[in-house]
Every structure is written in C-alpha cells, then in structure tokens.
Amino acid sequence: MISKKLAIQVLNEALSTGADYAEIFFEDSSSHSVLIENGKVETSSSNSLCGVGLRLLKENQCIYGYTNDLSKKGLLALANSLNKSFNGERLITVTKLDMIKAKNRNPVNRSYNDVPAEDKIALLREGVDEINSLKDPRIVRTFANFADTHRFVAVFNSKGKWFKRDAEFGRMMFQVIAADQNGFETGYEAPGAQQDISYFRTEKVNPKKCARKAAQTALKMLTAAECPSGKMPVVIGNGWGGVLFHESCGHPLEASAIAKGLSCFSKNKIGDMIASPIVSAVDDSTIPAQWGSIDIDDEGNLGSKRLLIKNGKLNDFMIDDFNGRRMGREGNGACRRQNYRYVPTSRMSNTYICNGKSTPEEVIGATKLGLYAVGFNGGSVDPTTGEFNFGCSEAYIIRDGKICEPVKGATLIGKGYEILKKIDMVANDLDLSQGMCGASSGSIRTNVGQPTLRVSEVIVGGRGGELK
Asked: What 3-state DSSP class applies to 362?
C-alpha cells in the first residue's frame, strides 16, 4: 500500500504536462492452487502479485504504464515517463484525497489464507472418489482443481478521491474425460463464489455432486449420435446457457465497443426494440457473494445493477468513464481489469437474461421437434457484426415435447441481434454459472446466466444429416 502523501505527489507529477485526469491503481494479491490428476496430487502452488498501474487521460487519449517498483523514486519515474506524451500546461493540481466508502457485500468469514492445503485436497478427493465409484473403464482421465485468490486494491485519482477494496474468492473444478473406440468426450463443472470454503459443501455445490455430474456428462456424450443440421427451434438450458448471450450480445453492449462504433448495437438508440418483448437482460455487480460481483469498480464508481434490455427495448450500456467521454455519459460501475498490468475498460460482471412467465416443462413441452442445448465448449463472436458460432458440449433432441437422445457435434450459428428477436418463450428457472472472460483488459471473473428459453429458429451445424 502506498501512502496518500506519496499518491498526491505522483498524481501531480503525472498531471504536470496537461493531462486532464490521472489515476493510480495499487494491487497486492496472492493466489493458491492445488491440482489432482488421476487421483494424484500433481501441483500445489502459490503466487503473489504486487504493483502499481498509472493511467493518464487527455480528452480521448489514454496513456498507461505500470511498475512493481513502489519506491518514491520508482513511482515518480513512471509518472515522468508517461507525462512526456503531453506537452501542455498543468490543468489540475491535487491537494487532498477523500475516501470513497462502499458497502462490502462480499465478506468472507474464513480467509482462504487460513485454510491448509490439506483441507482443499480433502475436498477434491471426495469428488475424485465419487468418480472412481462409478467403476467405468471408459473414464480415462480426471482433473480436480481448487484455486483461491485474496486481492487487495487501492485507487487514487485526480478527482481528489481514493478507495480500497479487499476481496477473496474460490473456485472448485472437476474435468472428466471419457473415451472409447469412437473418440473421447469431456464433462466439466467449476462452481465459484466470493465465499469461504464452506460454500463448497452445500447441498447445491459439493464435490460429490459436481464430480458425478461432470462424469455423467462425459459418458452420455460418448454414446451420442452426431447432431443433425439445419434450421430448427433450439431450447437453451438455464445457467451456463447464458454464455451465448454473454458473448454474442453482452460484449457488443460494452462501451468499449459502442463508443467507437464497433458494435452491432452502435446504431441503436436507447428505447429501440432490439429483442423480443418478453426479453429483459441485466448486468448486476451488486449481487452479494457472487463470482462476478464488485462493490466498487476500478475507477472508483460504485457497483450497480444495469438494466440493459427492458421488455425488448435497449435500456442501457455497461460504461467506463473513459469510453463514456465519447458517449456523453459517466461511468456506471462497469470498469474492470485483470490486474495492475492492464488498462481498465468496460466489462461485464453478473450478466443474465431475466426470468419469464413459463416453466421449463412448458418450454420443452411446446417444442415438437428441435434441439435442447445444455452446455457450451467454446466458439467465436464478432462484436461488430454480432455473428457467432458456438459448439455445444451437451445437447439432446426434443421430440413431441420430450427430451430424447443425446447428440454431439452441435454448433449454433447466427447473429446475436437476430437471436434476441427470435426468443419466443422464457422460463422462470434463472440460474447463474461461473466463468472467466477475456478481453482487452485481461481475464476477469464473470457470471453468465439465464432461465431456460427457446429461440424459434437457429441454424444448427452438425454431421447427422437432416433432423427427423
């Protein structure tokens, strides 16, 4: 941690040549990870990260640098090297720093630093033993991992404000690979939260349940037939199914794309219909203890609940202060970065499609013939055009309103803004799933989510011929 006195000196040095904003981002974090592969502990590691990032802004120009030399000499040298990008006169002088206080919605009762590695290993072994109890020779490889991070951040800026944020989060992962003469399939479960280790022994999230689900998914998909191809209704499962919205629609609603006209939604105005009237979508960083939540963002704006789409209408964007300059908007608590080495920008937190009025059974029952997509294993999206393709890691054929045989090799192809308008049923079983999102400001924790929903028509790629 650097002192306020030193922060003021560094800010003023950074501002001396005409920048209209300066910001110091201090970070001190530690992380721990243990990996069990095929029942044996392969690695148990600890890492630490400590340093400062300095950002200078002038109108729509951004200059950034970082250092892990936290001495007065080192920080002033960084400020001096960056301010050479400008050659104007001083516009701002910082004389004091007042603290911004934010409610801590994510307290951890027992620090992971106080949890022995043996306890984390014991947690994972419960899941490994559950997989082994299946005694299925087709399971050829298993991975079990527990990772946790303790991250302290302090930010000082030329608005005369500063804040600090202290967070801890953990994640448990099971990956199972099953193989036979026809190939191999993978099952994956990785719940996480800003809660202590007791969270991973709850009814909803525990090692036996997660490990068994990963194994069963791999085994089911191993025997699956190739997915048919063509245009068809697609029901997307709750929870992890929200990754489709996250990638194809969430990123294009970030100010980093909107402000530069690089989003398929850049031409839309607030109030325009961009989705079906039964669709509302939210990015909410204030949900207590959730994986993607933040009390205060990396620019000092309080976390907020942003209603992005309201009954089909474009309602808001995820905005950081810098990109907000181009939009005539102030940041709304959506500015994030991986660590002090990255320039911050607008990013998602907990992003989901809201509950609808149907039940999951009604959505399935109303589908005569189509695809039920439960899990996704990657794909690509172009935020400028909204075009996407996503591979399904777990999918089934729906026949006469019933979930039938599993299929593999399914790929969903389309454009995000077109898919939004084709959602014709939304259920009431909203769930969230954890992931890591990579973009220009690094890899950050995000939740994706949605209830079960149906898209009336999607192009599905597969090798199984026509759906019959």
From this structure: helix
